Amino acid sequence: QVFLPIFRKLFAILMYRKLFIVLAALLTLAACSSEKEPVVNYKLYLNWPERHLPDFSTLGEPDVTGVKNNFDLVDIDETLNHYALLLETTLKVKKEEDYTFKASTDDGSRFYVDGELLYDNDGAHGPITKVVTKRLSKGKHDLKLEYFDCDKGQSINFLYCTPTIGWREINDKLLEAEDKATDDASFVIPQ
């Protein structure tokens, strides 16, 4: 009987502490994610043994799936080699105009808009930049980037622009058509 009040007090303190920790975690998560919400779905296939892109429709279940903020390799373990990666998102176009897409990848990649192949940069190689332009109508458009890494060196740098907006990353503002401007100085000059 003597220990019951002490036990209740300790239990109350522990419950308040747990509540505080959960609340702090939620506030931190909200603060960190307010600028960029993930909008790019990805599928990662490990142990891709070839020196070319796979046919993703034949690979079966991916080893890892998730969401990202951009067409990039952030959140992908940089020590990984020999993998294939499929990145997909939707672009909301406010008015019809020409969209220029620029991607520099090490190793191979392919880029599609609404299922149409816009460039094929397949094969094992160092960074190579591809630039393509397509007129997009007002509305939503599906973007897909297929990528693989065979060994050593891996990168994806992906930007787009229109005649009325500067170079932009694929990021959370796509669906709101208010993209973050990005400096494209880190790109390899097209060959």
Walk me through the structure.
- The structure is a single chain.
- The protein is of the alpha+beta class and 191 residues long.
- Helices cover 16% and strands 38% of the residues.
- The protein contains 1 helix and 10 strands, in the order αββββββββββ.
- The chain has one helix at 3-33; strands spanning 40-46, 64-68, 83-93, 97-106, 109-113, 116-121, 128-136, 139-149, 155-161, 168-169.
- A 6-stranded antiparallel β-sheet has the order 2-1-3-8-5-6, with no helix packed on it.
- Strand 5 and strand 6 form a beta hairpin.
- The longest helix has 31 residues, at 3-33.
- The chain is extended and about 80 Å long.
Q: What is shown here, in short?
A:
By secondary structure, the chain is α+β, with helices and mostly antiparallel strands.
Features:
extended, disordered C terminus, alpha+beta, 4-stranded antiparallel beta sheet, 191 residues, 16% helix
- Rg over CA atoms, rounded to whole Å, is 22 Å
Oligomer class: single chain
Shape, per Cα inertia axes? extended
In the sheet with the most strands, the strands line up as 2-1-3-8-5-6
* pLDDT < 50 runs, ≥5 residues: 17-36, 174-191
Which series of helices and strands comes N to C? HEEEEEEEEEE
Number of separate strands: 10
- Main sheet summary: 6 strands, antiparallel
Question: Helix tally?
Answer: 1
User: By helix and strand content, what is the structural category?
Assistant: alpha+beta
Percent in helix: 10-25%
Strand content is 35-45%
